[in-house]
Amino acid sequence: MGTGLIDEALGSAEPLRQEAIRLLNKGGALTSFDRQYATAAYAYSTITMILGLAESRLPAEFIPRIRDLAKDAVKRNRPDSDVWKAMAAAAEVLARAGDSQGAVWAIRKAKQLTAANDELIKVAGGISSMYPQVYAEMPEEVPDEPPEALPAGR
C-alpha cells in the first residue's frame, strides 16, 4: 500500500475512532445495538490506526502511539467484542519494531480479553518465539497499563 493510501486510511480511521469513543462514553444512554456498533467501529478503526502507523512511520515515532492505542483499547473492551484484535495487532507491530515488553504485554492482555482462538494462539506463538525470555518472565495476568518501554536495543 502506498504512503498516500495509508495516510488516507489513517485520516478516515481517526475520526471514526473518535466518534466511536464519543458514543461509548454515553454509557447507559446507548441501546445494545448502538453499543455493539460503536465497539466494532472503535475496534476496527483502532486496528487501522495501528497497522497504518506501523507502515508509515519510524518505530521511534509509532511505538508510543501504538502503546497508547492499546492501553485505550483495554478500557473500551466489552464482552464478545473484537477489541482483542486491536491488542493482537498492537502485539505484532510492537514485536516487529523491537518493543519486546510492549508486545508481550499486548498479547497477554489480548488473551485476557477473549477466549483462546486460532488467530490469538498464532500471534502469541510468534511473539513467544521472538522474545522467549520476556514471554516466559511476564505473568499471564497483566495490568491494564503496559510496562515501561525499554531503551532501544534491550
Give an overview in words.
The chain has one domain: Alpha Horseshoe (Serine Threonine Protein Phosphatase 5, Tetratricopeptide repeat), CATH 1.25.40. The protein has helices at residues 3-24, 32-56, 59-76, 83-96, 100-113, 118-130, 132-137. It is mostly helical and 154 residues long. The chain contains 7 helices and no strands. The longest helix is centred in the N-terminal third of the chain and has 25 residues, at 32-56.
Mean pLDDT: 92
Q: Tell me which oligomeric state these chains represent.
A: single chain
- Which CATH class applies here? Mainly Alpha
Based on Cα principal axes, name the global outline.
globular
> Approximately how much beta-strand content do the residues carry?
under 5%
CA-CA gap between termini: 31 Å
The stretches of 5 or more residues where confidence is low (pLDDT under 50) are: none
What structural class is derived from the secondary structure elements? Answer: mainly alpha
In CATH, the architecture is Alpha Horseshoe
CATH topology call: Serine Threonine Protein Phosphatase 5, Tetratricopeptide repeat
The sequence of SSEs as H and E is HHHHHHH
Helical percent range? over 70%
Q: How many strand segments? A: 0
The largest pleated sheet is described as: none
Number of domains: 1
Number of helices: 7
Radius of gyration: 15 Å
